[in-house]
Design brief:
mainly beta; Neuraminidase; 4-stranded antiparallel β-sheet; 2 helices; 26 strands; 11% helix; 6-blade_b-propeller_TolB-like; membrane; transmembrane; transmembrane helix; WD40-like Beta Propeller Repeat
Length: 352
């Protein structure tokens, strides 16, 4: 009996050792990655809890600026953190509602849109009895130092001025405004001067980003065609809303010329961003989901229109941005959320 017990104990010891060695030296599947996400590697989660979105790299790519509803805040405020998620700090006023933040060249200044000058309270939440709508709150675009101090107002027109981003050349801000009665794309200098309108077709044109050489702009657009669509669009606009159920990706020159539609489907395609090769655009879309609730990242060839799916997580993935060398990507996702509606910021190595 003693011998049998010793053999059993010895065999159990060998089993434990072999198991330890196997699990120590056998590569394990990345827990944050879907098996089909071949373009993503070494995914790291940077925020944990709340609603975090639209994270964009600083020009030196050591920091991220993003909007977040967290802690005691009832609506979005602007935060900056290092690209490893450390040194998180609030840089907006903590009042009103903010959106669409971006660094300026040199990373000593930032821009973002805010409603705090209209009211210190959060704007009313959208009226979803009208369907799934985005509220066109009374945003203006502000500039501040990177710590939030020395806040200055760049736009001062009634209604919506938001969705501002900056050219990699460091000379222009591109943004969306309702100043002329419709949602159009404009550019202006970094001090808010020399405003120029780029789009003129009826409907929503927005979410613009410059190409890496500053010569092109990609954006999302909804241009209602028949009379019923036009009537619905105009009524929603009058009520301060837009229904983002059908959005297509477009490209134009930085001066508004040579507009070209890139996607052509019945989906909501949004958040486009140029790959550094200048030949592709990454964006978010629900094109694969008949119910329209699941958004994933896709990348499209500008010339051929060929589309490749990038993410496969069964919920939301959106707001992607590459580093200038195309080796890293940051985006917002519902993956690994602890409760419904939680959205966090993730960064990963990009594998072409």
């Amino acid at each position: 009996m003693k011998k049998d017990a010793f053999v059993k104990l010895f065999n159990f010891f060998i089993f434990v050792v072999i198991s330890f060695l196997f699990f120590s030296f056998t590569p394990q599947e990345e827990p944050l990655k879907h098996p089909l996400e071949k373009h993503l590697k070494n995914i790291r989660q940077l925020t944990f809890g709340g609603e975090n979105a639209e994270a964009y790299f600083s020009f030196d790519e050591t920091k991220l600026i993003f909007q977040s509803t967290r802690d005691s805040f009832e609506c979005d405020q602007i935060f900056i953190m290092n690209i490893d998620g450390s040194n998180l700090r609030l840089v907006s006023t903590g009042k009103g509602k903010t959106t669409c933040s971006y660094f300026l060249p040199g990373d000593t200044e930032i821009i973002y849109s805010s409603t705090h000058h209209i009211s210190e309270k959060c704007p009313p939440k959208p009226d979803y009895s009208k369907g799934y709508v985005w509220a066109l709150d009374n945003y203006d675009i502000f500039k501040a130092k990177a710590d939030g101090s020395n806040l200055r107002q760049l736009t001062n027109t009634p209604g919506y001025d938001a969705e501002a981003t900056v050219s990699p050349k460091g000379d222009k801000i591109v943004f969306t405004s309702i100043r002329d009665g419709d949602l159009e794309i404009y550019t202006m200098d970094l001090d808010g001067k020399n405003v120029k309108r780029l789009t003129y077709e009826k409907g929503y044109d927005g979410g613009p980003f410059f190409s890496w050489d500053g010569k092109k702009i990609c954006y999302r657009a909804y241009h209602p065609k028949d009379s019923a669509e036009i009537v619905e669009y105009e009524q929603l606009l009058k009520d301060g809303y837009i229904k983002p159920m059908k959005l297509q990706i477009f490209v134009m020159d930085a001066d508004g010329k040579n507009k070209k539609q890139i996607t052509n489907n019945n989906a909501a395609n949004f958040a486009p961003f140029f790959h550094p090769d200048g030949k592709r655009i990454i964006f978010s879309s629900n094109m694969h989901d008949p119910k329209g609730r699941d958004f994933d990242l896709y990348i499209v060839n500008i010339e051929t229109g060929e589309i490749e799916r990038v993410t496969y997580f069964p919920d939301f993935d959106g707001f992607p941005m590459f580093t200038h060398d195309g080796k890293k990507i940051v985006w917002a996702s519902n993956r690994n959320s602890k409760k419904r509606g939680e959205t966090n910021i993730f960064i990963a190595d990009w594998v072409d």
